[in-house]
User: Which sequence fits this backbone?
């Protein structure tokens, strides 16, 4: 009986390219003849006899015991993601924050110290700023573009460095290789949130990062119809993380795991179109008279374009830009869009847009947002798969009203 649970091994012995791996990388996980993977929609699995039951109950990461411990569909997703991120294994969770929280709580204890960036996804920022200190864990926040700041924040009890690049929502880039080298010199574990890049555009583990996490809700699922998270790491780290996972219970449902598996199959073709559309849109916005500034790592004008080009293969869907005017003008612009939908998230087939200052207003005041690089006229757009001329026409019509 197969016992690999929510983790799947990378096993890329065949030398298949990524385009092939996302379609066939889970073939070894299949024990069925159906071309489309079956959905194992069962919370629990039967044992043959007492000896079999004892083996199931006492084997870590068993995929046919109880779905909180693992499920065959989880294995298939994990096998592909481990292959794409070039790690030994992977774990799936019910959300991106489920992945990050599980990793952090698995590796830290009272008295430990963590270094995190000043710019993170809102949920990650709250975890490090508000939750961890309640449990006696100190957190230092540093400017992610300053490697010296990371070095200066290290203490004897520093156990973890949390990274996110490009960062949400300002698209500042972190030098992954430089931070990884620094951390290894001090025996510190590194985590990188690779959601904004995708494993096709950036591979943090190849650059030395220990653990790579994703909100699989975004590019990996690709259709805005599921929530999921992924942790990619070594087998040694996986044992600790999986143990905490079974306690916290951030379990990915078999149906969402199946939807994620289906979404991953088209990741390569979707990312190629998204990368091209976003770069074209960012370049067009930069030349528009009603736009003050555009932030996109793929543009030569981005202050870290050289670094982004060095560690990224493509630059992803997300563009941040400031429209002429203030809060009212940005709000009017977003409301006038007809093709791009005003909604959170990113990386799906549809273009999405948010007035960033409005979205973050519930957790930060205006002074805090400006300090974080989020002015009142700031807009974040996730470019989708629509025809580029239609995307530009929609933006132009809304900008013409300012």
Assistant:
């Amino acid at each position: 009986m197969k016992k690999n649970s929510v983790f799947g091994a990378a096993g890329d012995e065949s030398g298949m390219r990524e385009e092939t791996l996302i379609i066939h990388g889970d073939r070894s996980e299949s024990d069925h003849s159906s071309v489309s993977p079956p959905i194992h929609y069962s919370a629990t699995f039967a044992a043959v006899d007492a000896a079999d039951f004892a083996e199931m109950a006492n084997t870590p990461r068993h995929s046919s015991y109880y779905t909180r411990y693992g499920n065959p569909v989880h294995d298939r997703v994990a096998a592909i993601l481990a292959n794409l991120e070039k790690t030994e294994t992977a774990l799936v969770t019910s959300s991106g924050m489920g992945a990050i929280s599980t990793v952090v709580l698995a590796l830290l204890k009272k008295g430990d110290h963590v270094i995190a960036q000043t710019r993170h996804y809102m949920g990650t920022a709250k975890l490090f700023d508000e939750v961890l200190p309640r449990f006696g864990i100190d957190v230092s926040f540093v400017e992610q573009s300053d490697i010296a700041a990371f070095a200066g924040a290290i203490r004897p009890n520093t156990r973890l460095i949390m990274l996110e690049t490009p960062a949400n929502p300002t698209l500042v880039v972190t030098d992954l290789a430089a931070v990884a080298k620094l951390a290894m010199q001090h025996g510190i574990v590194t985590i990188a949130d690779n959601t904004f890049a995708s494993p096709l555009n950036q591979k943090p583990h190849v650059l030395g990062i220990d653990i790579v996490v994703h909100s699989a809700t975004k590019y990996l699922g690709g259709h805005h119809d599921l929530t999921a998270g992924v942790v990619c790491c070594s087998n040694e780290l996986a044992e600790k993380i999986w143990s905490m996972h079974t306690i916290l219970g951030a379990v990915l449902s078999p149906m969402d795991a199946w939807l994620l598996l289906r979404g991953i199959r088209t990741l390569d073709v979707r990312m190629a179109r998204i990368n091209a559309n976003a770069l074209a849109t960012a370049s067009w916005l930069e030349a528009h008279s009603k736009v003050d500034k555009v932030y996109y790592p793929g543009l030569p004008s981005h202050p870290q374009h050289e670094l982004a080009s060095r560690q990224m293969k493509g630059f992803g869907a997300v563009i941040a830009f400031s429209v002429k005017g203030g809060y009212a003008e940005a709000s009017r612009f977003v409301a006038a869009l007809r093709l791009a939908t005003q909604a959170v998230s990113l990386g799906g087939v549809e273009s999405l847009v948010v007035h960033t200052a409005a979205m973050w207003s519930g957790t930060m005041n205006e002074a805090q947002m400006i300090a974080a690089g989020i002015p009142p006229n700031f807009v974040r757009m996730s470019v989708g798969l629509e025809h580029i001329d239609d995307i530009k026409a929609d933006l132009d019509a809304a900008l013409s009203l300012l």
Remarks:
- The longest strand covers residues 158-164.
- The first helix runs from residue 18 to 24.
- Residues 108 and 159 are 7 Å apart (CA to CA).
